[in-house]
Amino acid sequence: MTMPSRTEMNRAEAGQAEVGATEPRQDATSAEERAALVEAVRDFADARLAPFAGRRDADHEFPVETLREAGQLGLGAICVREDVGGSGLSRLDAVAIYEQLARGDIAVATYISIHNMVVGMIDAEGTDEQRRRWLPGLATMDELASYCLTEPGAGSDAAAVATTAVRDGDDYVLSGTKQFISGAGTSAVYVVMARTGLTEDGGVDPDKQGSRGMTAFIVPAGAAGLSFGAEEQKMGWHAQPTRAVVLDGVRVPAADRLGAEGEGFGIAMRGLNGGRLGIAAASIGGAQFALERTVAYVQERATFGQPLATRQHVQFELADMETELQAARALLERAAAKLDARAPDAPVACAMAKRFATDAGFRVADQALQLHGGYGYLHEYGIERVVRDLRVHRILEGSNEMMRMIVGRAVLGGR
Ligand SMILES: Cc1cc2nc3c(=O)[nH]c(=O)nc-3n(C[C@H](O)[C@H](O)[C@H](O)COP(=O)(O)OP(=O)(O)OC[C@H]3O[C@@H](n4cnc5c(N)ncnc54)[C@H](O)[C@@H]3O)c2cc1C
13, 40, 83, 284: least surrounded by Cβ within 10 Å? Predict the structure, then answer.
């Protein structure tokens, strides 16, 4: 089973310039093509994710072999150009894919989204040499990637990054701690945001404070001085590991700097636009799974001599759940189309969609649990896992308060 790539979908007509990752990307996938894509991914999720999601959650198993199968399907570099093994698809395609993956297993789907965020950053911001060196192995998911921005003292305030990168000859020397890094310890490639622009006495050049003094680096797992914290014990997302990443004098050749010095904050934020779409799509997919289960359950479960589905209250709840998910999907597709088109307001649209879809997805999942009564609280029914997994979507890749900040500023005309 292989997912059709952009070329296979016959879009690379003779003479047509390759659509660069930094150029506007047309979403040229027809409705039939997207339906075929969704079906292929749904088959994969039904066969390789959903049946094992409960066990992986209970065992805290990160299914690396299944990720490689996803890579073989073309899911390791969804929006990456095809010359380095990418699938060359649009953001609109990608959100449809993540939704289907999350119907099977939210924690696996979101890791695939994070991996794709990093891979997309290397494709969009890397030199040709970097693209050719790093991307083929990442596209097949033989190698996995992690995004390293957050630190103990820099979460929502991402510009407060304190990890330093000091130039030493042809290398930079990186020191600091990254917190909450998805995939850490298993990933082969870490894109690390660190502070450059330091003065000789260890201070920060006044012109390079905050977001202006950040630079991105590609760090391989085997680098001397790189180590990982213990696996965090989390409420959800058990099927992917979260660990601290410790950089203790890690030497990174200047050739592995991603983008120019001082561009790291912009690179990190541009990556997050797509990342937020993936998290939003996974919220919709997870909630859709919970809703489908609930629709079946309320028709079977009878109380006071009648199936729950005959109660108007239950019908109204289902109506609201369906409406919220459709509204979230519409907002998400709008944001994905804007990101494909490189519209100037795409980051605001991504923030709006992320906030709305992750709140809506969580509410729908929680209501699905409520409609299952006590059974919803049991592992066996698979609903409580969805609630636990979706909770963190309102916090990470920019908390929903930060999303409101982005949207609010835009509403106020950029202030
Ligand atoms: C499971 C998991 C996986 C993660 N994976 C990654 C990863 O792979 N890579 C990575 O770099 N990071 C990752 N993160 C980190 C995540 O992005 C941060 O947790 C998130 O950005 C919030 O930062 P914080 O936890 O420091 O909270 P804080 O920034 O301390 O915020 C605490 C609360 O205060 C609110 N708040 C903060 N400032 C304001 C303000 N000015 N106005 C109003 N409200 C405010 C926040 O919205 C939040 O509700 C992960 C986190 C988790 C839990």
Answer: 13
Ligand 1 mean position, distance from CA 396 (Å)? 5
Residues 314 and 399 in one domain: yes
One domain, residues 271 and 398: yes
Which DSSP helix (H) or strand (E) runs through 163?
A: none
What atom of ligand 1 comes closest to residue 402's alpha carbon?
47
Query: 67 near 250, Cβ under 8 Å?
Result: no
Q: Using the 3D structure, point to which of 113, 144, 175 is the last residue of a domain.
A: 144
Tally of domains within the chain: 3
- Domain termination site, one of 144, 178, 196: 144
Shared domain for 67 and 82, answered yes or no, is yes
CATH no. for residue 210? Answer: 2.40.110.10
Residue 190 has pLDDT above 50, yes or no: yes
pLDDT in tens, 278-332: 999 999 999 999 999 999 999 999 999 999 999 999 999 999 999 999 999 999 9
Query: In a 3-state reduction of DSSP, which class is residue 285?
Result: helix
pLDDT digits (tens, 9 = 90+) for 221-237: 999 999 999 999 999 99
Q: Does residue 142 sit in helix, strand or coil? A: coil
> Is the domain of 240 the same as that of 160?
yes
Beta pairing, strands 214-220 & 257-258: antiparallel
Atom of ligand 1 nearest to the CA of 178: 11
Report if pTM > 0.70: yes
Residue 16 lies in a domain: no
Instruction: Name the nearest CA neighbour of 46 among 318, 285, 388.
Output: 285
CA distance 284 to 364: 9
Domain that holds residue 232: 147-261
Catalytic residues: 397
> Which residue owns the Cα nearest ligand 1 atom 48?
399
Do 109 and 162 lie in a common domain?
no
Q: How far apart are CA 99 and CA 286, in angstroms?
A: 7
